[in-house]
């Protein structure tokens, strides 16, 4: 067994992503996006069984974890899947599993 005193730099954002993905409501929200689709909060609420307040909370967690990105255009905020970040983060985990375990 080796002693781990610090988390590798490649893993620094992974825990927030796993936290974001660790809830069934957030998983459903993430899975509701089609390829390259951008959705507003209202569109996400319409396809969800959650209140707008709950959806807003889950979107913040998903964005903080890196699973989603957003942009405000006029009065609307559009969200989309941050595919590149998730691929990189999960790729780092898979590389560790392949090479270290």
What is this entry, summarized?
With 101 residues, the protein is an alpha+beta fold. Helix content is 52%, strand content 14%.
Helix content: 40-55%
CATH H level: which superfamily? Answer: Winged helix-like DNA-binding domain superfamily/Winged helix DNA-binding domain
Number of individual domains: 1
Structural class: alpha+beta
Using the 3D structure, state the CATH architecture: Orthogonal Bundle
User: Separation of termini?
Assistant: 11 Å
CATH class descriptor name:
Mainly Alpha
| Strand arrangement in the largest pleated sheet | 1-3-2
Q: What string, H for helix and E for strand, traces the elements in order?
A: HHEHHEEH
Number of strands: 3
Instruction: Look up the CATH topology.
Output: Arc Repressor Mutant, subunit A
What are the segments in which pLDDT stays under 50 over at least 5 consecutive residues?
none
Counted by DSSP, the helix tally is 5
Protein name: ArsR/SmtB family transcription factor
InterPro entries: ArsR-like_HTH, HTH_ArsR_DNA-bd_dom, HTH_MetalResp_TranReg, WH-like_DNA-bd_sf, WH_DNA-bd_sf
Keywords: DNA-binding, Transcription, Transcription regulation
Domain HTH arsR-type: 6-101
List the helices and strands and how they pair.
Layout: H1 14-21, H2 24-31, E1 39-40, H3 41-46, H4 52-64, E2 68-73, E3 76-81, H5 83-100
Antiparallel strand pairs: 1-3, 2-3
Helix pairs in contact: 1-4, 2-4
Organism: Methylophilus glucosoxydans
Keywords: DNA-binding, Transcription, Transcription regulation
Domain HTH arsR-type: 6-101
